[in-house]
Amino acid sequence: MTLYGVNAAVTYPTGSRAFSAGANQYIGNFNWSYTVNQAIGLSGTMGLDALSGLNAANVPQSYFAFVPSFVASASLPGPSDFYVEYTYFSRADAGLGAKSVIDSAFLRDFRNSVQVDLEYGFSPTLLDGQRQHYLGAGASIML
């Protein structure tokens, strides 16, 4: 089975520059998903984004980014899932070049109302001589 979709988002800076980057942002995505079999799925997004970030002078600056991603997911035995996602950003931020991010997560359902996830991601791209690594965890409760 194959699914396609589009979405758009617009944000307006109404609060602190630390959270809004001081300018409007426009995001448009084409999304797709393909079910390989009962356990394996493939999906992705092609994003065209007009974003904003604070430049080296701490002034809001708009920039354009092309953001495609590709996801492979697997249903594991029991109520568990795993995915790996690769995302490319043609611009990482105002005044910066391109970067890639690889993200993975393990999700586990408990009963019908609680889901827990563990996430790890990194960027193989060096920006300012550093590589980004992150760990995450979350819980969802459905009432």
3D architecture notes:
This protein is mainly β and 143 residues long. It has a single domain (2-141), classed as Porin, CATH 2.40.160. It has one helix spanning 17-20; strands spanning 2-11, 25-35, 40-54, 60-76, 80-89, 99-110, 114-122, 133-141. The protein has an eight-stranded antiparallel sheet with strand order 1-2-3-4-5-6-7-8, with no helix packed on it.
Describe the structure concisely for a colleague.
The chain has 143 residues and is mainly beta. Helices cover 3% and strands 65% of the residues.
Number of strands: 8
Profile the largest sheet: 8 strands, antiparallel
Distance between the termini: 30 Å
Number of helices: 1
| Uncertain residue ranges | none
Kindly give the count of domains. Answer: 1
Topology:
Blueprint: E1 2-11, H1 17-20, E2 25-35, E3 40-54, E4 60-76, E5 80-89, E6 99-110, E7 114-122, E8 133-141
Antiparallel strand pairs: 1-2, 2-3, 3-4, 4-5, 5-6, 6-7, 7-8
